[in-house]
Design a protein that fits this description.
168 residues; alpha+beta; Ubiquitin-like (UB roll); DNA polymerase, domain 1; 2 domains; five-stranded mixed beta sheet; 5 helices; globular; binds FE2/S2 (inorganic) cluster
């Protein structure tokens, strides 16, 4: 029983991967420990802080309570998958840097992933929509002023991009 393992095939940042893990593993653990993608942070481990937010088939989800089995056959995007092929930061990452929305950085990957998904659904958000979008993501450092500023800047940058930028 204790040695039971499940095999999971899924896609991470555009690459097919296959892992064999105990069924009790969470998605966050598999990403970090099996796949070495430590950009996804584990803060509370209880679904409360948003540090572990990833995109699952394009939707922002917290990964710390997500059973790894739920990754089977899905497309996962982590913070490592956002940079362009030339290593350029994603416009949302760049906006976080430019606006000083990164301090200790612990919340940043989750905030950025949440914001990428949010702006894809809401390319021209109101301040209230922006505030609501990060309600589930805790930041101990920034006072929640610079992050909304970064979200607005990212929305402007994305709107100014030539059409056809590949997802995400
Ligand atoms: Fe997942 Fe806090 S670590 S929500
Ligand atoms: Fe430190 Fe957000 S920058 S928790």
């Amino acid at each position: 029983m204790h040695h039971e393992r499940i095999e999971l095939d899924f896609t991470v940042n555009g690459e097919p991967v296959s892992v064999t893990v105990p069924p009790v593993r969470t998605a966050a653990e598999v990403l970090r420990e099996e796949l070495g993608l430590t950009g996804t942070k584990i803060g509370c481990g209880e679904g409360e802080c948003g540090a572990c937010t990833i995109l699952l088939d394009g939707e922002a989800v917290t990964s710390c309570l997500l059973p790894a089995a739920r990754l089977r056959g899905r497309e996962v995007t982590t913070i490592e998958g956002l940079a362009g092929p030339d290593g350029a930061l994603h416009p949302v990452q760049q906006a976080f840097v430019d606006c000083g929305a990164v301090q200790c950085g612990f919340c940043t990957p989750g905030m950025v992933m949440r914001t990428v998904a949010f702006l894809r659904e809401n390319p021209d958000p109101t301040d209230r929509e922006i505030a609501r979008s990060i309600e589930g993501n805790l930041c101990r450092c920034t006072g929640y002023v610079k992050i909304p500023e970064a979200t607005r800047a990212a929305a402007r940058a994305l709107a100014a991009e030539p059409a056809g930028r590949p997802a995400p």
